[in-house]
Amino acid sequence: MADLVSEYDSVNLYNFLYPRRKDFSPYFVQYLDFWYADERNHADGFFELNRLIFGTGEVELVDALKRRVGDFSGLEDILSSEFNLLLLFAYDEYVSVKTYKKDTFYQGFGHAGFNNWIKNLIADEAIHFGNAVKILKTFHADKLHQAESVLNAIAGFEGEAYKNTFLFDHDGPHFLLESDEVGGAVIDEILSILRKR
Questions:
Q1: Where is pLDDT greater, at 95 or 176?
Q2: Nearest-angstrom CA–CA distance, 147 and 8
Q3: How far apart are CA 128 and CA 175, in angstroms?
Q4: Would you say the pTM of this structure is higher than 0.90?
Q5: 3-state secondary structure 52-94
Q6: Structural domain tally of the chain?
Q7: What is the pLDDT of residues 89-116, one digit of tens each?
Q8: Going by C-beta distance under 8 Å and a sequence separation of 6 or more, which residues neighbour residue 102?
Q9: Which InterPro entries match (predicted)?
Q10: Beta-carbon contacts of residue 38 (< 8 Å; ≥ 6 apart)
Q11: What is the rounded distance in angstroms from the CA atom of residue 181 to the CA atom of residue 172?
Q12: Percentage of the chain surpassing pLDDT 70?
């Protein structure tokens, strides 16, 4: 359920950013649309897993999801520019790849289809990371010297309670990264990738 709700909450982030589309480059708008389509697909998959494996009623699940509201208070500075948002997506998707790779929960269901599905989900998250990096390097190269300070501000939100924003959903039962595997470690890895030609 934790994986379902965090993937479902992409609707809250997408709807929060949607009114600002005119302020974003066409490349980032396209990024958002493809990202959102993938995250909705992930949510649909987790929805089916909850319904089929745990016998959760479809109406009950839909009602629970529709009641979710994102609280973006305190994130205004991080969400203030396309550059910051791309770094935020890069950070969040990188962390998602790392934690999903460590999660063996879905291997216990006894069917290869579950493993294939979760591997495809991880590949999607890696593509989201890679595409954010490509846009940063291609269209925001003049600002990359600011990346470390922005990433440090982003990592400052680690450890706070999840607010249904899709972002920083790192307090669920399937979040398997230790404190030394997020924050500074992720920042160093992202900066190293951004510096590569």
A1: 95
A2: 28
A3: 19
A4: yes
A5: HHHCCCHHHHHHHHHCCCCCCCCCCCCCCCHHHHHHHHHHHHH
A6: 1
A7: 999 999 999 998 888 887 777 778 888 8
A8: 176, 177
A9: Ferritin-like_SF
A10: 124, 127, 128
A11: 16
A12: 99
Contacts of 62 (CB under 8 A, 6+ apart): none
Sequence length of the chain is 197
CA 124 to chain centroid: 10
pLDDT per residue as tens digits for the range 58-90: 898 889 899 999 999 999 999 999 999 999 999
Please name the residue that has the structure tokens 């890895």. 189
Token digits for 181?
């595997």
Write out the two tokens for 147: 């990346």
- Say which residue the tokens 């948002």 belong to: 85
Query: Which pairs count as long-range contacts for 75-82, CB under 8 Å and 24+ apart, including other chains?
Result: 75/157, 75/165, 75/167, 77/153, 78/150, 78/153, 78/154, 78/157, 79/16, 79/17, 82/23, 82/24, 82/25, 82/28, 82/140
Q: How far is residue 56's CA from residue 30's CA, in Å, rounded to a whole number? A: 35
- Structure token pair of residue 160: 């706070």
- Looking up tokens 């649309």 gives 33
How does pLDDT run across 2-15, given as a tens digit for each residue? 889 999 999 999 99
DSSP 162: P
- Range(s) of the domain holding residue 24: 2-195
Per-residue CA distances from 132 to 11, 64, 87 (Å): 19, 31, 7
Nearest to 38, CA basis, from 151, 166, 138: 166
pLDDT digits (tens, 9 = 90+) for 132-168: 999 999 999 999 999 999 999 999 999 899 999 999 9
